Amino acid sequence: MKYKALSAVILLSGLMLQITSCHDPWQKKESGVTTAILNTDPLPSWNDGPARQAIIDFVNRTTAEGSTDFIPVADRIACFDNDGTLWNEYPVYAQFMFSFDRVRAMAPEHPEWKREQPFKALLEEDMARVWASSISDLLKIVAAAQANTTTDEFEQAVTNWMDTAINPNTGRHYGEMTYQPMIELLSYLRDHGYKTFIVSGSGIDFMRPWTEKAYGIPPDQVIGSSYIVKYEMRDDQPVLFRLPEINFVDDKENKPVGIHQHIGKRPVFTAGNSDGDYAMLQWTSTGPGPRFGMIIHHTDSIREAAYDSLSSIGHLQKGLTDASKYNWVVVDMKEDWRAIYPPID
Question: Is residue 344's pLDDT more than 60?
Answer without folding.
Answer: yes
